[in-house]
Amino acid sequence: IERLRADGVALNAFRDGAGRHSFEFDTGAPPDPTTLLTEEPLVLPVIIRDGQVTGASLRYEDEDRDYPLVAQLRSLAAKETDERRIDLTVDGDMNERAVRFDGELGPTEALFEGGPLEFDATGAFGSLTLVGAGVIDDLHAPDRPEVSIQFAGPDIRDLERMLGLEQGGPGTFDIRFAAEPGEGRWLVSLDGEIGDFDMDFNGESEGLQSLDGVVIDLHLRGPNLQAPLRPFGIDSVPPERFELVGVMRRQGKSLVFENVSSVIGETTFDLNGDIQDFTNFRDSRLRLDIAGPDVARFRDLIGIPGLAEGPFSMRLELNPTPQGLG
Fold first, then answer.
1. Which residues of the chain have pLDDT under 50?
2. What does the alpha-carbon distance between residue 140 and residue 145 come to, in Å, rounded to a whole number?
3. What is the pTM for the complete model shown?
């Protein structure tokens, strides 16, 4: 499409806890995860060489957010340059926080032919800034893309406000993600701080096309686990400092847990073992050791009834039976 203009587009969408909603996507049958990256080529059927949207608005609300997402789009423009690249600019605000984004990707032929595709981007979201660049090696079958992204800012409350979440206390936000090929492997790292939460994640695999030979080394720590676990329906964790470290490996259908240890307050959780087939838990050997100074703080979490209190230790084991079931 050589030229496209739109003005005053407004979209209102909602989804509530009773299942009522104002929109629905017909995505067909769930995709087969083993062919998700290779079944259909990821290419654009059409490119807009000169497009602009002005005066647009979006309002979205659902039961998981404390208040609606409200976005005002003053201008969105995409234009092909003489160098056969696409320039993209966005100017607007989201939940009363200014949004500005500038990006470039190309060459244009890669969007039709499948890559490799280069991109770089900068953005400002309230007080938060985004800087990213990289190369997607193959849009048909991305295997070992090279990516570098940093998302940072002095006040995490800007991000919470923009996502429609209840704002907590002040704190910095600094997340760094990097992925690159290396010695026949694909290497990934994610580290940074989100308020009082620190994370350090390193992983590697043969590539996105196989997701085999995966090794994950992680280290998380923070003031408490209540906030990150609440979206998963887990609300019985005591509000105490925590730390999680460990190594997990995947080869084929097997998973191995090496010294995966979590400390919540003064209580420790140590997991070791392997799952030979994570699709059905056959021939699994797992051992979870839990110990702490006061069982009363964990009665709901670990399912101990009554009025038990004081120091405790326990071991949970999963071993294969003669029939091969864990």
1. 27, 33-39, 326
2. 12
3. 0.79
